[in-house]
Description:
Order of helices and strands: HHHH
Distance between the termini: 25 Å
Radius of gyration: 13 Å
Shape: globular
Structural class: mainly alpha
Amino acid sequence: GGTRVDEQDLVQGLREGREECVRVFLERYRSLFHHCIGHFEADHASREDLFQDVVVYVLDRLEKDRFDPSKGSFGTWLY
Length: 79
């Protein structure tokens, strides 16, 4: 199910603010973010807020070109 977007395309799409790429990104990495956030935030509403903050932060960093694929995967960079 769902289209397989490879990492490079996904990152490129996120940088360009393409909606479908943002959707794929959120679906793909939501559990990773929630897992990380869950370690230090127990409150569900706070976790949701933090999740939104993290997403905004990541997209902001991407636009500033902080992700370098030669140094590892996007997932690793996110982590």
